[in-house]
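Reviewers asked in the last cycle whether our approach scales beyond single polypeptides. To address this, we selected a multi-component target totalling 454 residues and predicted its structure end to end. The input consisted of the following lines:
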Amino acid sequence: VIGGLVRAADRFWFRPAPPERLALLRVLVGVWALAYVGRRRRAWREVAGTDRVLFKPVGPVRLLRRPLAPAVVGVLTNLNQAANVAFILGWRHPRSGPLFAGSLLWLISYQNSWSMIYHSANLPVLHALVLGISPSADAVSLDRRRAAPRAPHWRYGTPIQLMNACTTIAYFLAGVAKLKGPLGLRWASGEALRSQVSVDGLRKEVLGSRGGPLARRMYPRLGLYRLLAVGSLALEAGAPAALAGRRPGRLWAVNTLAMHWGIYLIMGIKFRYQQAGLPFVPFFPLERALPRQRVR
Amino acid sequence: VLIIGRDDDKRLTAVVGAGLLFAVLSPIRQNWRRQPRDGFPLSYYPMFSAARREDYIVYHLLGVTADGERRPIHYSYAGAGGLNQVRRQLRRLARGGHADTVCKAVARRICERGDEALADVVAVQLVRRTYRVADYFGGDTRPVRERVFATHPVERGA
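The resulting structure, written as structure tokens, was:
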């Protein structure tokens, strides 16, 4: 029995994949991170200069006793952006990959250390860490620009399995938090979701922003909220089932992507990484988008 | 520095992978704690899990016009982070006795930015308001309770 379990685990974790699939994930996650950090450079420097009483370090930033000077944050951001470009290009990946992933973890943790944790940024950081310490530049990269393409191997498949496992665990945890929260299974009644959507819309309006485009119109329709609550709870608590195979994985990926776009339409909350489909693309054979090459 | 797949060593890859997945899953224990603590990037993802009451309390800014009208001021006048980050910061600053400093800084930024929509605002307030959610979405957007923490004049040309 134990031998059978070990073989099953081996087949699951050490599934071969072409290097191009992992490489394209490196490029996609890298481009996303470059745009994400680039667009926030100024705002993050300003945040770093706010009142020290608001500093509540999380993650690796807990090593700090007090905030860094805004100029230091600027230097770290520049370092991250440079490493990010090298990561996208696949240039000196054994060094640039870990440097990019580590600096992204530090930077986003630092920005989340000012009284608010943005949960939409957890997955990009985890995915960057996996890509940064795996051979994701063995194709579509400057490091291998003159080399012949490599054959599918588990060293390219295992990081993809790890990315998918990180993604599904994150959603599973969100489902468990709802079921273990004060409402338990009553969360699926729809009232809790309506209440969350309403409060979100209210605070956006009083803070001078705009609430979700559908929140006000949907308020009287509790049945619709019930349907959405059951659906989202099933996608979250049932997320590990997406690892059972290709078809369940892709089905879950498409539905969860649709859930994020639904959240955006109803609440106006942007989960940029999720809405771009990036946590879900590792479930698909991305390399088919590339011209076919002879493998050595 | 590449660890996953190095030297085609399945054991090393398995240990690193198992360690990562264990770490990502480990915040699940927060659900059984009396005072759960969230983190980053390892989180137990508590968003949307809390039970909301009928009333909702929120700290926010108001602009007061010369004829006494009061309307919300955009959160970006109070800080550079996102809406929810600034909202939490306003709450912490108000509770910590820093409301005056916040209103003073917001009044200064109103003068600096010269936003047309705030041209008639003569003072800034930091308030804590309680709204009845059902009433609010039924069309009655007035708060049921309010506490003004600080008021500061907008001194244009000063």
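Chain A has a mean pLDDT of 93. We regard this as preliminary and will revisit it once experimental data from Aim 1 are available.
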